[in-house]
Amino acid sequence: MNAPAADRPRPGPAAGAAPSAPLGGAPPPLRSRTVYAAAHVVADPLADTHPDGPAALDWDATLAFRHHLWSHGLGVAEAMDTAQRGMGLDWAGAAELIRRSGAEARAAGGLLACGAGTDQLPPQGAALADVRAAYEEQLALVEDAGARPVLMASRQLAAAATGPDDYLELYGGLLRQTTRPVILHWLGPMFDPALHGYWGSTDLDAATTTLLDLVAAHPGKVDGIKVSLLDAGREVRLRRRLPEAVRCYTGDDFHYPELIAGDDHGFSHALLGVFDPLAPLAADAVRRLDAPGPEGTAAFRAALDPTVTLARHLFQAPTRYYKTGVVLLAWLAGHQSHFTMVGGLQSARSLPHLRRAHELADALGLFPDPELAAARMRALLALHGVDAPAARTVRPL
User: Fold this and answer.
1) What residues does 248 pair with on adjacent strands?
2) What is 311-347 written as a DSSP string?
3) In angstroms, rounded to a whole number, what is the distance separating the alpha carbons of residues 229 and 238?
4) pTM
């Protein structure tokens, strides 16, 4: 792991940025839903590394952003896809991130779930025994950090498994070892093409049955299932088949308001990458949902529905590059002093895409200092030879 040198200037949150805690002190806790924001990482722009080299993080800014999320009452989902896991953040960096976030969560009293995967293995050629050992190593680290484990979908398992039985046997062995209930993670191929055919079948109905069989065979071992298939109807059907004690955590960054609001038969909790930039609005919306009756639901939808246009923009195909827009918005909002990403992923989206993200976020009032955001967007455009100003969006009073 490349850490910034002690005698080198340390990048961090911008001068003049808004404080991480909401005005008026700590908000009340969320009651009606369990909500995790999958958090991004802040690269060290002064590190002498390269896209294929070890990840180098600015630890101060990275951990400060976790405190920002906790300050709004959200849980942090750590070392997940939003943190560029497997797309710039290597296992050594993820392990250190989990250790540090675990310590910060204990100090802050923050809710923390951390991804346990198999990314210390090479992409191809691992045997099932290797995959299980890799999961066990990471699972032990997450539990030692005091976090709830998220058993992440594994590229290596997808490559090595020959069918549903391999998934049931391997996951079953892990669940028997865990000291606390875990969140199972189903990430669709739109987020990671290497996960095509997960749970042993390209037929999503068959894959769902395998997942439900796993849950049923290990009562008390599964806190919930995190579903990122961008298919609201399928998620609703899945959650209706879950045991009462098992949560469905939506990872659907296209349909999250309706899935969290729910229906007469139930609702989804949330573990969402889009709640990284939407944290203040998302937390406020869920607190409106905490109010009983249809009025609370209507207020929740009124607060959160307008954010979907931004979410769909950030997560447009190729969906796996949504992290670039997320980090751009963190920079524009003043949570970090630069727009640099591990693996050089800041180049993964076009200037028109980034400019539109700024416009949509500004229209939602996401920036504590809109003028700072506009100035930074103009500077980014100018750096690439674009003279047109980044116009402020006028919001109705």
Assistant:
1) 225
2) HHHHT-SSGGGHHHHHHHHHHHTTSSS----GGGGGG
3) 11
4) 0.90
